[in-house]
């Protein structure tokens, strides 16, 4: 998640890129909203947290081998993109690298489409893959990136055939002001924007002193996540800390329905929240936010597991 400092970084003009476009005729209206089907949502697989943590270990190793970070324009970021892309290519996804420039450095978005489904109605899940330069960014945002990757691989393992089309994305240069996701949205035609029925964002979902926050944007997406957590007996709160600070913002500004999950950054957990969720009141949800200590030890396994399973529940339910 980017720092909430207005105008912190001014990005350079973007250069040539490959923009992934879907096919198929659509109407001028936005796709109809539907609530997640209980049958389809119940069929969503459990996402093994050990698999998600294995991806995080790889991202940690990449950072360690590349100056301690996976930041935009650095070798650690490109190695991270290459790792994710190789997994998706082997699993049968159609992948596209979208290239842009910001702050004089080359950045990349990775877009992965699962074959099949109605390409006039796209359910899309995304997360930023870049870290800040100060550290490896394992919670921010290896956690969201790894959970989306493992959910995509679960789609492949199940050979899932959704009614809607599934698309997954890993954004570059989010820490510079959502540069990659803005580039993607800005380079979609109005017709292709209208095809995206849901955009789900996952930025920091394994915070070590976690909260359970659900974006209160699109009501259907919000209800899908809240229903999942209610089934676990876990209370949620509306997400406010990350408003305007993550990659759902460009989609929301373009009129695309958005939602997502968040486990907290540098805001302080209250006594009431600690009573509800456990953890330590008076401390930040993530004391290593944007710091060198955001390593593979900076993850709460329970939060990561619950949020990854909620991610899969929403992908299956909203795409059925």
Notes on the protein architecture:
- This protein has 320 residues and is an alpha/beta fold.
- Helix content is 37%, strand content 17%.
- It has helices at 38-42, 49-65, 75-90, 138-158, 179-186, 190-194, 219-232, 248-253, 271-277, 301-319; strands spanning 94-102, 105-114, 118-128, 164-171, 196-202, 213-214, 237-238, 258-262.
- An eight-stranded mixed sheet has the order 1-2-4-3-5-8-6-7, sandwiched between helices.
- Helix 2 runs antiparallel to helix 3.
- The longest helix has 21 residues, at 138-158.
- The chain is globular.
- It starts with 37 loop residues before the first helix and ends with a helix.
- The relative contact order is 0.19.
- Mean pLDDT is 90; it is low at 4-31.
